[in-house]
Amino acid sequence: MSDQHTTLITGASSGIGRATARALARPGHRLLLGYATGEDRIRQVAGELQRTTGAECVPVRADLRDPEAAVDSCMAAVERAGRIDCLVNNAGVNDRSAADALELKRADEVFAVNALAPMALASAVGHHMIRGGVRGSIVNVTSVHETVPITGGALYCASKAALGMVTKVLALEFGRYGIRVNSVAPGETATAMNGVHDEDAYREISRPDIPLGRPAGVEEIASLIAHLAGPGAGYITGASVLADGGLALTAAEANARHAFTTVPPRENPPA
């Protein structure tokens, strides 16, 4: 079996996945870069990383809308590599569907990409690690909305909540083999999926209702993923780590602002 450290990252052609590849790329490491579309883009990413970091970068086509085919493709790449040390389940799709107009076809797609395929891939990778005696790491990218609801988010929130619970169950089952399973739960992040095409502009975007006042940059999320994937987080498993700029802290704020301005005066104020 190859002794080269190997990491598989889904959705690696852009956004958080591409930033995670940059964060993990170094000489002596092999990166399996999963993508669904945009073969030219992923090859450009792979070539640039290989040239600038010395890591071996291998594009792997994996369209998570078809979980079985995606897992087969990824595991074939893992078998060719000879080992797998880390899986980053990053690929995902956003969705804002009105609760009174949910479509089963769209539900199938959202759950396939956000929950079913990552779960199946984590299962297959975990099996490969156990078989090879690798004390590896799996990091799932969920969302602040795995616990915080948002209007129009029935499919998205439910799918991310499912992946969050999968994280905890796999951590429980894989821990005896030295395999850690954690999740990163980002808040709003400046990516094309969220309508931001200049990822470097995140500090210039105002979000006054987020305590830190802005969305996250992809490198900020990627650095957390890299930490959880690495030996510095060797005693962390089953955790869901929020990286949301404090968004989850604000749930009662809007109501509080309203409540404290509409409290009726007391009829008999104290003397």
Which key terms come to mind for this protein?
single chain, 271 residues, alpha/beta, Rossmann fold, seven-stranded parallel β-sheet, 7 helices, 7 strands, 41% helix
Please provide a brief summary of the model.
By secondary structure, the chain is of the alpha/beta class. It has 7 helices and 7 strands; from the N terminus they run βαβαβαβαβαβαβα.
Task: Give the fraction of residues assigned to helices.
Answer: 40-55%
Secondary-structure-derived class = alpha/beta
What's the name of the CATH homologous superfamily?
A: NAD(P)-binding Rossmann-like Domain
What spatial order of strands do you see in the largest sheet? 3-2-1-4-5-6-7
Under the CATH scheme, the architecture is 3-Layer(aba) Sandwich
Protein name: Oxidoreductase
GO molecular function, one term: oxidoreductase activity
Keywords: Oxidoreductase
Pfam families: adh_short_C2 (PF13561)
Can you walk through the features of this model?
With 271 residues, the chain is of the alpha/beta class. It has a single domain, classed as NAD(P)-binding Rossmann-like Domain (Rossmann fold), CATH 3.40.50.720. Helix content is 41%, strand content 14%. It has 7 helices and 7 strands. The chain has helices at 15-24, 39-53, 67-81, 104-132, 154-174, 218-229, 253-262; strands at residues 5-9, 29-35, 56-61, 86-89, 137-141, 180-186, 240-243. Strands 3-2-1-4-5-6-7 form a 7-stranded parallel sheet, with helices on both faces. Helix 4 links the parallel strand 4 (86-89) and strand 5. The longest helix has 29 residues, at 104-132. The protein is globular. The N and C termini lie far apart (83 Å).
